[in-house]
Amino acid sequence: MALIAPPRRTSLTHEAYRALLLQNPEAIDPPIEHITQGGTLVATIDAVLAGFAVAITRPDGTVELDGLFVEPPMGTQGIGRRRVCEACSKARQWGALILIVVAAPEARGFYAGCGFVVSGETPTRFGTAVTMRRHLADK
Predict the structure, then answer these.
(1) What are 3-31's pLDDT values in tens digits?
(2) Least C-beta-crowded within 10 Å: which of 53, 67, 96, 131?
(3) Alpha helices in the chain (DSSP H)
(4) Cα distance between residue 119 and residue 131, in whole Å
């Protein structure tokens, strides 16, 4: 599947997680049911996949940004930020008031710049992640 390659390339650029991810490649691949739910937000440049995000509904009525991946050479072109904006729009369409992301601590600044605030921490098999939320009425 074409959407598997970007998360692998993007995730493996982070040295802190590289060895663990190589030992657990299934942790990188977006679950097919998340992709087929209708919240896959794809970015292309000149018909080439540049990145994507997956938004999924949660039982509590919020929407989670379950994955955000940008091809490493295209990482400073605003592709990720635009996918976050699209995820916010998709969440609003689905009637959600909050968009949640569980992020690596290194991504905290990026998500804060996109309007998210820290709401807690979440243990993962790779260490502690930061849980962040964005109230969709704010922006």
Answers:
(1) 444 454 455 455 655 555 556 665 555 65
(2) 131
(3) 5-11, 15-23, 32-36, 79-93, 108-113
(4) 6
